[in-house]
Amino acid sequence: MFGLMKSIKNSTSNDEYRKDYRLHYCGTCKTMGKKYGQRTRVLLNHDVVFLGQLLSAFDNEEQDKKQWDSQYFVKKCFALPKKAEKIPKVLEYTAAINVMLGALKIEDNILDSKKGFKQGWKTARSLLKSKVKKTEKTLLSWSFPVNSLWEWIGIQLEREVKKTQFNTITETLNYYAEPTAMMTALVFKHGAKMTQHPSAKDTLFDIGHSFGQLIYWLDALDDFEKDAKEQKFNGIQAVYNTNEEFLNETLRLKIIQLIRSFQADFDKTISKLPMEDRWKVQFSYQLNRNLSLRLDDPSSEKSCNTSTSKVIKPLPSLELKVEN
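Now predict its structure.
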């Protein structure tokens, strides 16, 4: 599975949070299988699962979740929801977005891969073509700006080819991360409409924008040596105009500081959403802990801007059944 926002076990959480994550994880995956075919489920992304949790939390749907199709509560992958028309709107949205973002990722890999690997991604695109078309049609019926996503992919490729430098490092950093940040922001913003909370659209846009920038530079940091070896574009190399095969510690720390600044923006903005404090604490901790694991910096767990010392109240019971 792809994405940063994996479920985290921690002393401030409880089993109900993990059950809630699993409910959205399985719910998104099973909805993808039901609406767009089983093969689309390989595209499941942890970050889209997180978006589903976020939308459910500020939409205060805890009680409604108990009415979700029983198949969502069963730990059996091929137990799909029975009636497509009764699928919760949040899961409809995360399923469609997951397929769409998967298609965009495949397209990006086709453009970015060398000849030996390019055909494999083209095959994947061909296998999913009809499913992606169906997904686009669904998103357009919700007035989602599908064309904007494809346009930003094109802009990203254009910027990677030109390798433009600006007068300041900050301008150049924002320039390369903007396509990813804008795509993520649009996805988060439209979630407000899907959950009938239009007043939250600007806040969700800002959360998505910060999260997108964070993801862009985290991936650039992870892929630096691989990209250098394979002579692929890398945002860090482009901004700092370096041809080194290995990232020096000074530059690495600069990028980590940049990533943490976007984490701080995320924490600050998420506090504005109309949800209970225990959700804000949980989501901030989840991001901080996952970042610490990716950055190999467990000591930074204590740096989370949202205090994890708050007591997190248990969520309403969501029973997950196990069938053999």
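The chain has one domain: 15-303.
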